[in-house]
Design a protein that fits this description.
197 residues, mainly alpha, 2 domains, 8 helices, 0% strand
Length: 197
């Protein structure tokens, strides 16, 4: 069973790495289907937590998630298997392109050009789908939707101070911690009132 889970981790993330175009965000819905729905390695809430951590850390989103899932299941060895599965397809494809295709051949090849134009709309859909599902799972309603919309607009504005995404990661972490402290205090107050009764 132990060896089987390592093989499953490697193969699962190899498929994700091989068949996903458009980077980390496009991978999220595929990763979620494999990890949460198919293999049941993580619960939906736990996946969202891992996703938040993976996005906050430096590096490639898919590799960060694969390392987190591998570590959760089988520690360091699991992380290595999952990360190798994610990285190898891209490495092999880029190596093949570097060996056999020159930049001029890619630019002048109509078939390749049309293939990439056809992939673009699919990539947009792959990016939008996890945003919607993540928002639903995180219980973002009309009132709380203001926060991500305002943050997105500020980052998009390109103003020197407010367009830095790191600022919002830090502020989000502080806000989450303060909200958690407030909820904890409310729970204690309610428990104190029940004890007095």
């Amino acid at each position: 069973m132990m060896n089987n889970i390592f093989f499953q981790l490697f193969i699962t993330f190899f498929k994700i790495g091989a068949f996903t175009f458009g980077g980390g965000w496009a991978m999220i819905s595929i990763i979620e289907k494999e990890i949460v729905d198919k293999h049941h390695w993580l619960a939906k809430d736990e996946f969202l937590d891992q996703l938040a951590v993976a996005q906050s850390l430096p590096g490639i989103l898919a590799v960060n998630i694969s390392v987190a899932v591998g570590d959760r299941l089988r520690g360091m060895k699991g992380s290595i298997c999952a990360a190798l599965g994610t990285i190898l397809p891209s490495f092999m494809i880029i190596l093949t392109i570097a060996i056999f295709l020159t930049p001029d051949l890619i630019k002048n090849n109509e078939i390749l050009s049309k293939i990439f134009k056809g992939i673009r709309p699919a990539v947009v859909a792959l990016i939008i789908a996890p945003v919607i599902t993540s928002a639903k799972a995180a219980k973002i309603g009309w009132k709380t939707a203001v926060i991500p919309i305002v943050v997105a607009l500020l980052i998009w504005s390109k103003l020197p101070v407010v367009s830095n995404p790191i600022l919002y990661i830090v502020l989000g972490g502080i806000g989450g911690y303060l909200w958690y402290r407030r909820q904890l205090e409310r729970t204690r107050e309610l428990q104190g009132k029940e004890v007095e009764k």
